[in-house]
Write a structure and sequence with these properties.
The protein has five helices and five strands. The protein is of the alpha/beta class.
Length: about 130
C-alpha cells in the first residue's frame, strides 16, 4: 500500500482549491477506498491551523480543521525519534522547522512527501517526493 505524508503546502492547496489541490483530493479518495495511507505530523497540522486563523479568522481555521477530520489522515505526534530526524534535516538544509517535521515523517514512514514547496528540492535524494 502506498504511503503519503502531507506537508502544510499540500493541505492549504487542497483547502484553498489551489494548484495541486486536485492531486491531494485524489489521494484522499485513494485512502478512503483503502488504497493508500496518509500521514500528517501534528506540527504541520498546527501550522495549517495558524495560517488559516491568521489569514481567514477562527471560522476558516475551524472549517479546515473539521474538514480534515473527515478524511483518513493519521496525525502523528512529534516524539523523540521524529524530532531528532527533523532536527537533522533542519541542521543541514534551508527549510522551516515545520517542513523538517514533514520530511522527517516521510523518511521514518518510508512514505512519499506530498508538496509543491520547492524548499524540499534538495531532499530528493533522501526522501521520495510527490510534486503537486
Amino acid at each position: 500500500m502506498k504511503r503519503y505524508v502531507l506537508d502544510t503546502h499540500a493541505l492549504i492547496s487542497y483547502a484553498e482549491g489551489e494548484k495541486g489541490g486536485k492531486d491531494v483530493a485524489e489521494l484522499f479518495k485513494k485512502a478512503l477506498d483503502g488504497g493508500a495511507e496518509i500521514y500528517l505530523c501534528v506540527i504541520n497540522w498546527g501550522e495549517m491551523y495558524y495560517i488559516a486563523l491568521r489569514e481567514g479568522g477562527i471560522e476558516r481555521a475551524e472549517l479546515y480543521k473539521n474538514t480534515l477530520a473527515k478524511y483518513p489522515i493519521n496525525i502523528i505526534e512529534a516524539n523523540k525519534e521524529l524530532t531528532l530526524q527533523a532536527a537533522k534535516f533542519k541542521a543541514f538544509h534551508k527549510m522551516s522547522y515545520a517542513d523538517a517535521f514533514a520530511a522527517g515523517l516521510s523518511k521514518l514512514r518510508k512514505a512519499e512527501l506530498v508538496t509543491g514547496d520547492k524548499e524540499f528540492k534538495p531532499l530528493e535524494g533522501e526522501i521520495k517526493i510527490f510534486w503537486i
